[in-house]
Amino acid sequence: MKLGMFTSGYQRNPLEHCFQDAKRFGYDFIELWGGRPHAYAPDLKAGELDDVKRLIDKYEIPVLGYTPEHNGYPYNFMIGSELQRRDAVEYLKLSLDMAKELGSDYMLISPAHAGYETTYEEIWNRMEKTVRELGDHAEKVGVKLVVETLTPYESNAFKSANDAVELFKRVNSPYVVGMVDIVPPFVQHESIMAYLSKLGDKMYHMHIIDGDQGTDSHIVPGEGSIPLPELFKELKEAGYERTATLELVTGYINEPRLYARRAIDRAREYMKEAGF
């Protein structure tokens, strides 16, 4: 199982620090956060793509995943008018194009909050329409579209393994796949490992990090309440051999380099105990 670094927590540091640290600390790849000042898709298209490619070549660290910023401001394809949805879709299509140029295997999206007045029918119609459009573009460019469930603190639209199963029934594309960030199932008292059995071949990626009940905080491994040593053993026995990103976001933004090192050291320790 390859372990990746998520770069969102480095947004107050130069992007080069991410590549330096991924190389120094022993990460296998980068999952690149697509927001300013680092890798916002329109900026990449306008010429900054070459800067990122130079870092990939210099440090010999691939960008296997690209995660454009899109479930806050100004983009959230689950809320607002049709004009606003179309704007978000066009932005995410451009992001898929940039993911391809970066050499990424996948691009990650997460359906965010659809608003308090929105019905389930409206949520699913909008999500199905949007993911189908993005899936068609993903197939065109040859990049997998990974759809991530979120916690109920973040979304009322896409929160569980059953939601993912339902989406893949509605949008049946080999380029639309799923994943599990282990915090959402943990805080909802859902089984993490059930994602593997329910999603089957659609289970493409993981975000592994620690967490606590009652919050969507992403915590350094070993400092929350998720039994991570046992989880790694279960993943080993289940034969999970795909990618996992250690998704530290902005909770450690003051010292991302220190906590990125601690996170990979802990994860490697757990993997060794599990026999990876």
From TrEMBL:
Keywords on record: Endonuclease, Hydrolase, Nuclease
Entries under InterPro entries matching the protein: IolE/XylAMocC-like (IPR050312), Xyl_isomerase-like_sf (IPR036237), Xyl_isomerase-like_TIM-brl (IPR013022)
GO molecular function: endonuclease activity
Residue ranges occupied by any Xylose isomerase-like TIM barrel domain in the UniProt entry: 19-268
Cross-referenced Gene3D superfamilies: Divalent-metal-dependent TIM barrel enzymes
Superkingdom of the organism of origin: Bacteria
NCBIfam families associated with the record: PRK09856.1
Protein's name according to its UniProt entry: AP endonuclease, family 2
Organism from which the protein derives: [Clostridium] asparagiforme DSM 15981
